[in-house]
Structure prediction request, 181 residues.
Amino acid sequence: MRALYFLTCLCLLPVLLGSCSHPPPPDATLTPMTQQIIDPDDAILKESVRYFLENSDAPSASTYDFQRIDLNEDGRRDALILFKTPYGYWCGTHGCTMLVLRAHNDHFSLVNDIQPVREPVYISPAKSHGWKNLLVRVSGRWDKAKNVVMTYNGEKYPNNPSNLPPFDQYNDDEYVRALYN
Prediction:
């Protein structure tokens, strides 16, 4: 039995050694591994908001509503955070502060903050620079209440929607209702 085992190993040795000794052909290219897209969960989102609050000297007991939606179609659900309290810190008679956070595999990064925003907030199927447009409500000002479209400029959305022109030509069926009271 030992002789058969030894003979089998002896026969396989040239095959094993031969396969290791030849370099790949010169025209062979390596295919890079594709990065696996991971959609971070809500616990990571809440940790990112806590980190934002700590590093912006905002009240740590702030409350907020959030909605997860893939704004840039990269396979990860980004986040809209609409702060609620403390009212005098995040909100005024014109509306509240909303954060747009971009999702990465293991964290979220701040795209920008937008203020003043009132609910409801809608997500448009239309895009600007690869990001979906946002439709927000502006009211409580001396101007007439209005809906405005916020478009991504390649870096962020506008910080102040009250300066944007009114937009009333939309069909509720085309928009996703993201944040609402």
